[in-house]
Fold each of these.
Amino acid sequence: MTEKSAKKIILNKTPIPDQEPAKRRSNFLEVALGYTPEMAMKEAARCLQCKKPLCVAGCPVNVPIPQFINSIKTGDFKNAITIIKTASFLPAVCGRVCPQEDQCEKYCTLGKKGEPVAIGRLERFAADYAMQTSENGRPEMIEPTGKKVAIVGSGPSGLTCAFDLARLGHSVTIFEALHEAGGVLIYGIPEFRLPKKVVAHEIELLKDMGVKIITNAVIGKLITIDEIMEQFDACFIGTGAGFPKFMGVEGENLNGVYSANEFLTRVNLMRAYEFPEYDTPIKKGQRVAVIGGGNVAMDSVRTALRLGAKEATIIYRRSEKEMPARREEIHHAKEEGIRFELLTNPVKIIGENGWVKAIECVRMDLCEPDESGRSSPVCKAGSEFQIPVDVVIVAIGTGPNPLVPRSTLKLALNACGYITADEGTGRTSREGVFAGGDIVTGAATVILAMGAGRKAAAAIHEYLTCKN
Amino acid sequence: MPKILEKILIRHPDVFYYKVDAPLISKKAKPGQFVIIRIHEKSERIPLSLADINPEEGTISLIVMSVGKTTTEMSTLNAGDEIRDLCGPLGQPTHIEKYGRVILVGGGFGAAPLYPIARELKATGNEVIVIMGARSSDLLIYEKEMRSLSDKVLITTDDGSKGVKGVVTVALKRELEQNAVDMVMAVGPAVMMKFVCETTKPFGVKTTVSLNSIMIDGTGMCGGCRVSIGGKTRFACIDGPEFNGHEVDWDILINRQKTYLNEEKESFEAWKKCHAFAVCE
């Protein structure tokens, strides 16, 4: 920072107003309410406008962070969104669900002395402001190239890839298996963390850009990748890691045991929380246990609480430090009264008349970290105990959905069934077929999937333009 | 949105046949597969077996019995109406080969999805015997259709109003005792399929069953349809719906099917109150 400033550096982030924990634990409205223009300008003024912005390098899609923050600082909110949209197609989503603490904000110079600039909150502010003012940020489009690209899956990687390719003038068709586009943004992430209207707004922009979205199209069943390649010049597979894993313990098929995918899909996609107004039912447990320590586990347990659980508990086999969930989500969950049974592992689910009655767990110890630096949990002999529950949600991760891999000829897969694709370009073993996001990497984050979609779009563009 | 081309009341007052315009699905679908439908914005997604597939016409056929809210709402749709969401074909097709003598057992609704299966089996050179069961003769569906393409049709009714008095397994056991049978395929209520398997097991006859567990997406994403087959968890939507019946854990399936009985009732009652006159035609 060259400009000499008399004012002192403010060490703390401008707080973001939240819905009170006592109130929000019984509704599905968004938890974080977002900055007002005044708060946003105040926070934007904290940015040091570094010449070599490390934050940008920390962002998987390299959003020009200092530039958009500068626009907010000067009150030019419309320009802020235009700048963000040059790099990120889903700022309203990323501003809410990105793990900024591990990315842009982790490298913020201010973070060395105090708290980093609240980049995520500012990104969200710019995106929400644009949404409220019906400014959809439609980019300039290039003349149609006449090339056709198919995108399989409408999650974050597919949407991003579609956005970039459409912008470059290619004709893009997205195939989505469910009845609504958005993938995990629609079926997985709850309304209180990511309102569905935010996702719908971004998808409208794609439609406005001429992208065709075909829902209810299960690729591998209705159409195969091979058939797609007969009709399209290239294809991007972004089908995600949506195949739920179970623990394999006794009692897992009892009524009242859900995969997190099922539980969240019923609530988010099918709106079971509005049953019977909406037809899809869900068991509203009084005492709910969620197995796992990731963001999906936090989403599930906080959803269970909002459905009316008197007691909602996270069961995790390691300690809080090892939890893969974002600190912010753990913090919100604690504020809402979620119980944490840490260093605890389920050994069986106990039933009565076909329904879950209790979960038997064992306490764990963390042994000394091995060479990889990871401590593995080991059972404490004789420490078995039971927690009475009526709903159990298994959130221990997901695997690759086999429908596309099983039905596609000569598509190379790794030993776990994920598609083998080049990290920088998304190229697969099949010419013209690219892949990215969780179906390549295994379950990761929205922004990493977006990054993969973006890299693949650049590679597809190059492939299509060099082919002639 | 897919359009309903034809609707026929095939059993008074609550069983309807629908022919739906679905060119892409009809070209891919095979006997034994299913589709998932959602009829309006607030509706559930429900799986329905394919009762017929006609790729030349570009149509598929569905048979729907009004048993709960969604199926009753479906019965208010008529020819010319559109189905909001139609997704398929889903699941693995029935494995068809030249087995020799095959017995198809259909309980209640099971007769409908067995129709395209019977046709394929016949076309592949099998001798096809169909056993159809119902509580009473007026509840039978698809008898004429089945007679038109199988070698023998045996009817059983609980009340003896037609055919053999008793359940399907009475006729099945008799057939197994009289002739060598190479394959049995059963489609119908879980309890019926369970007893079919118990009947065929002592004869050592391979028996496949089509499992109708609760589903949401039908693509392997939710795991709600999981079933236990030979001690291993399988998803009916992508690994099935057909499995070796002798390996199925029937108690788990039957128990899981009951998960939402209360909610289904609540939802249907609330709907009936508001639509007392909607369902008549």
Amino acid sequence: MDNEVPLPPPRRIRPRGSASARGPSPSTSLASSFRKTHRFSRFDDCSSQPSSDPALFSSDDIPASGLENYNAGPMTGAGRKRRYRGTWWGEKVIDPKRKRADFKEKRNVDSGVWMGSDESGAESLLPSEDGPGWGEDLLKTVLDPKISGKSQGALGSFVKPLTATPAVSAMQLPILKTPDESEEHQFARSVVNDCLEKGEEVIDLGNFNLRSIPTGLLPPLQLLTKQAPLAEDFFSSLQPFLSIYLSGNSLLELHNELFELSLLKVLSVRNNKLQELPYTIQKLRSLEVLNVSVNRLTYLPWELLQLFEHGELKHLTACPNPFPQIEDCAIKTWHCERIQKETEPKSERYDLDSESECEPEQIYESLRFEEYEDVPPPSAWTAIHVATGPITRFDMEGRAIEENPKSSLVTTACRFSSSAAPSLRELALRAMCKHPGLDHTTDEDIAELSPFVIPLVQKAKKVRAAGGQRCSVCQKEYVIPRTEWLEWWDCTPYENGGKRPRTSGEILRPLPFKRFGCSGTCVPASEA
Amino acid sequence: MDSSKDSTFVSLVSCDGFEYILPYETACVSGTIRRMLDPTSNFAESRSGRCVLEEIDGVVLEQVCKYLVYNYRAKNMTNVPDMDVPAELCLELVMAADYLDV
């Protein structure tokens, strides 16, 4: 309305704010301006101004800005020029001090244009949410002059449905609620719905007493879009920095759906009852922070190391967990000396280590990082392979083979490690894994099969649900592991968040990583 | 029989009468068949060289025989190509493999 050309007034400086004297304006913009006051947007200022730049006059008839007052200084208020905008007859002074108050009242005028920065506009991007509520009200106020007439009184009732939308929309969002669901699950769903709706990147499901993650809870988060940024940083990405906190629950295992969230950046499963971390964690390629402390883990998946190397993982919190200590475990090969050789040749200490296996305490004491002078070598920043444990072999059905190293080493080697060919069972199970029909087989279907086959089919089903697993050595997909061993890696730099290299001579604190091979020939490189 | 083992062929017979003739060594990839044909066991199969597998039908036994040959060939290879198994037979094959211990 400011751009309405007024009649030439008597030539005087007119204070702004005359708009406030206007009658009540449509309540829609009232409601939006009511909410708008918390925000700052530089567009608001000119949303109802003419599109051309305001005309500026340097010193029309302001005595203070005249040359005679040049030395008066800012004390008298003469230092500030007055600015005019609009036509010469309708000129107005912009008073910078009164700007904020004016702007609020100015927004009472409905320009009829919904700006992108307008909050009400941002909400209208989700038509399914507030279609019935907000849209209808808007229509009413536009069509019904009575309502717009008493808009001041209606303000309260307008703010209300706006704040009430989360409850309404939670019903309409695509997450299906099963009727007989535990309270914790329902609560978790409402939290996730809330985050989805508000575009919040941090999903805090901590201390919910969750025993499992309900199916269908997490996949929608893959589509989570950050709230449109405010005008300040205009070109920031809409991709969320997705963080999921599941700490302080009673989770026994993690749902596969969690690992389908390829955008996940932060995952905390601190203080749960996890006994193992699935290998599928390698799918979280954007994961940067992982906290698995205070669980019941006795080893970590070897695939986690891939996230250090090929993923984004920079911060791992693995301790405390009931990991075995390296000095308590059987070690087949020590790798320290090899790493030493690659970086610096003075490695005699580690050669000694491999020979003095009978004195575990001494080994531990001398398991230190190499000493360096000024610049830390590149290996100070990366994970170090400290040792490899003995191999456990499995037969074709996945049962561990008792390997007696003295008597039957030759025979077991002949029977189980000479052939790289998969067993027929394995081949058939691999074919089964690729078969989409496996998803539809229920436990009852499986129970009807021959009892020898049931565990194998169940295993295949589990592998399929996890999206297949690949041999850590030959990268082939497999179902039943044939070999298994522990690798000890020191990940200290990552446990520090990658912020600091190992110090010179720092004690290595290797963590156990369990690795699987798909055939008898898929064994550690030191064995092959 | 021991001396002529390499050149001997054995035949595997399915429950619906299909007969597959395989070299002795190839058939012995299967633990069950090896025990059947073991000359010291004194089974009828070890004398006749003919194993009747009542639990396996012809279509499945064909795949089994393919596998036995595949496995025998791959014995000393390091990089083994994958063998394709028809998906519709996979459940029967798992059961047959369980029976034949392959």
